[in-house]
Write the structure tokens for this entry.
Amino acid sequence: MRKTEVLVVGGGPAGLSAAIAAASMGAKVLLVDDGLKLGGQLVKQTHKFFGSHRQSAGVRGIKIAGMLLSDIEKLKDKIEVVSNTTATGYYQDDGVVTAMTGEDVYMKIKSERVIIATGASERMLTFPNNDLPGVYGAGAVQTLMNVYGIVPGDRVLMVGAGNIGLIVSYQLMQANVEVATVVEAMPYIGGYLVHASKIRRLGVPIYTSHTILEVYGKDAVEAAAIVKLDSKWQPIPSTKRILNVDTVCLSVGLSPLIELLWQAGCKMKYVPQLGGNVVLRDKYMRTSRRDIFVAGDVAGIEEATSAMLEGKLAGLIAASDLGYAYDGWEADREDTLSSLEELRRGPLSEKIRSGLKEVVVEW
Amino acid sequence: MVKLSEHLRRTGVFSMEEVNRVMPPPEVLKKGPVAVVECIQEIPCDPCHASCPFGAIKEFKDINDLPEIDWEKCTGCTLCVAKCPGLAIFVVDASCDGDDALLKLPYEFYPVPEKGEEVELLNRAGEVVGKGEVRSVIEPHKDGTKVVTVHVPKDMIADVRHVRVVR
Amino acid sequence: MSSRLEHHPILTFQRGRKVKFYFDGKELEGYEGETIAAALHAAGVKKYRTSAELGRPRGFFCAIGKCSSCFMVVDGKPNVRVCVTPLREGMRVQTQIGKGDLIEKN
Ligand SMILES: Cc1cc2nc3c(=O)[nH]c(=O)nc-3n(C[C@H](O)[C@H](O)[C@H](O)COP(=O)(O)OP(=O)(O)OC[C@H]3O[C@@H](n4cnc5c(N)ncnc54)[C@H](O)[C@@H]3O)c2cc1C
Ligand code: SF4
Ligand code: SF4
């Protein structure tokens, strides 16, 4: 059994920031992440990030990961990192977390505080032949292309015009892969319009009120059909078109990866604005179980900037529970809280704000 | 909230009215190179302000504010062009007499055009609208985002927003 | 189709040592440190198993070890998530038919 003071599950921007904050306070931290490389979503984000210039906006995601990792490195006498390791279970009776390294090495971890920062998983869409090889999640395409330098195919149909669909389309074009078109079921483009304009001027069409109908192929995708939707979301058969594509990339939303929080018995609520089931927590990210915190996309699908700020809050509070502190940490905490509020003040964050109203409570 | 056209929200391409909203007036264009900021949706973003050494992009009161440019102060230096994560800023130089103008566009593709090379000129919808000669390629922040200066006819400065290498 | 990127405007790819491995008995090449799925994809292989009931072809979907779509038999062991398992010299990778059989050790 391994013992630690603060266990952080997940090494994306939220988990890394949580580990840095808790260790800066003086706590002993164990960070487990199931990837081969730390950084979560950031390691495949080649584009420059939005947000405040005070929190690295205008810097590429991969660079932001590098900055966080160098902070982790500076605190290495406090933070132990275990990669390629999946936290598989939380046992309520004794608070033990089980984890698996690779495919078959197991360990048990007991920690005074646990911060869950597992991020999110990609949603699937139902249509005939959606299980054929060549139908990939947008994140999967990014991993293949931006981490391993391998393109997914020659010609891609992108499903979904949210930020992820738009950004991954742009990244495909940067790898000289043709994006045949982007379809979006909603009548309007959901992602930032600057991202949409970026791919439009490259010649990629975006069809709103359109969806994928089915995919054709024997052992892998050989073509796909798209169709226009009427105002009641019904396909208009006469508008069906066949596209010659070998890859269909799905970016139809993310769901928080909450399994460990279920197992721990944390109070949950279904809040569609935040991506599905999420935990109740106070403004400092503490869940209904005093010893468990959340941060990042697992607490509600949002952005890397908010994930970092939430992670920092969770790390600070978890460590302060254990009696740790540094000079001015309380001012730091309040500053972090107000940066989060500022970030969420805009018209496009309306959905997030209304979702948070339902889950942020006082314990 | 700022009003955006149906056309933009459905297609990702500016309407004529929106083009006119962002383009500098003739008296500004006459003066020298200036930035055109094509960012008209309120998103949480502000690095353009911090990237301008001349204070030409006003400070944001709220991170969701729209960027506001002061063309009196803008020198057309392109530092913001290469910093903006939306790749939504372009520099136009229509100050020469006659029919010639220069556009300075952000570029993050391979291959990179060379000085003197003839490239295709693309409009906001990705249609090829002509050909132009590349005058220079720089990388202001040494971070992968290049700025390509291309020669275009003056009547195309509000139209051309991308170049494509054809070899 | 050459699917490995040699040039990229933003990224440079540091690839490990070139190694040989076997896919259904056929010798292929990949780079140490990349995942088995990445190496197979680069070699043009997209189908990794057939589904248990209907025998339908499956490849990867999430590429981060969460969706179980890419189970293969690796060095005799079934149900290995090839999208998160690093490639090593001489590995024997096989298309998994159905559920895969557990090899009992005693
Ligand atoms: C294409 C794309 C573009 C984006 N662009 C922007 C942008 O411009 N600006 C912005 O602010 N945000 C952007 N985002 C969003 C941002 O990347 C995410 O919101 C952010 O990464 C969330 O951080 P996180 O730490 O919560 O989760 P993640 O980054 O997903 O990290 C979670 C980590 O936990 C690991 N993990 C999960 N379960 C376990 C387990 N059981 N055991 C061990 N480890 C586990 C995962 O493998 C992963 O490494 C973008 C996202 C995408 C996909
Ligand atoms: S072009 Fe230069 S001077 Fe003009 S706004 Fe951009 S950074 Fe400022
Ligand atoms: S940096 Fe670009 S996208 Fe961000 S606010 Fe400024 S102009 Fe808009």
Q: What stands out?
A: The mean pLDDT of chain A is 96. Residues A 9-15, 32-35, 40-42, 45, 49-51, 86-87, 117-120, 139, 163-164, 167-168, 257, 296-298, 302-305, 307; C 64 surround flavin-adenine dinucleotide (ligand 1) (CB under 6 Å). Residues 250 and 357 of chain A are 30 Å apart (CA to CA).
